[in-house]
Design a protein that fits this description.
The chain has 316 residues and is of the alpha+beta class. It is 18% helix and 20% strand. It binds iron/sulfur cluster (2 copies). One iron/sulfur cluster (SF4) is lined by residues 146-147, 149, 151-152, 162, 167-173, 213.
Amino acid sequence: MSQNVTPEATSRRNFLKRFGVTVGAAGAVTSLGLLSACATDDDEMVTLLTTDGKTVQVPKSQMKVNLKEMEERGREGIPGKKFVMVIDLSKCRNARKCMRACQGAHHLKPEQHHINVLRMENDERAGFYYQPKPCQHCDNPPCTKVCPVDATFKRQDGIVLIDNERCIGCRFCIAACPYSARVFNWSEPKYVEGDENRVYDIELNVPQKKGTVTKCLFSADRLRIGKLPYCVSACENGVYWFGDANEDAVTNGTSKETIRLSTLLEENAAYTLMPELGTKPSVYYLPPKNRLFKYKYDEENDDWMKQHESKEGLES
Ligand code: SF4
Ligand code: SF4
């Protein structure tokens, strides 16, 4: 929720100080994400994300924002990190809070999924399980190699992103991805009017843009401010672990427990999807123990997002 404070209410400089934002220096916004801009009678206001996750509006005249620098920062990633996700299939109960949080943050329509929860059944006697499937953030990603305009790329921290300002919508990357992780914006995005003056954030893929591709970003904007991804934080069932392979540490989004990545993978016989392709995913799965033999499958639940779209806002 944006916090609007007018110049009449308080001096702008004091207002900014309240939120720990320094103005007047080119490097002042390095810990912030520039989210949007809108014109007022007096001055143009920009919305910023503070280091503690709040959004604040500030007058553009008092800031020196280097958008080029922000784009470069988004392309380079966070130095020294190698982000990794572990998904515990024995815990997923198809609550879909991960999907809902992701769609809200990235302004997606109900039918658009950066992360999708699939019902898996490989043997009717073995019971079924649910499998959340985000982009696998492959270390050897086939998608980036086919892009003719360098719109999609892998960063030093392992995250694969898309620059929608560059994307020409050829969809080569969709054809190249063996995990069906990419989504095409066939029509005008959900918040086309509300987002019209918003400055594009390469680490959030917002505003969404018709005729371009979008996909899971490992919530690069949240990692920038030291927070867990939207999906990981939203899950109440302990399904997601997220962390840094370089530190050999992952944190559970529900319990907030931090443990060794290598121990978690070894002790639970973790695996990656389609390893034979050599894509080297950064997403690991723990096997679906305790399958759902007695769980009554509710077919209507597959339409969860559609049912709830109008009842509960999907705003970030
Ligand atoms: S899962 Fe698909 S979109 Fe994601 S990095 Fe791998 S090939 Fe690219
Ligand atoms: S659709 Fe966009 S990101 Fe994908 S290959 Fe074409 S230009 Fe690159």
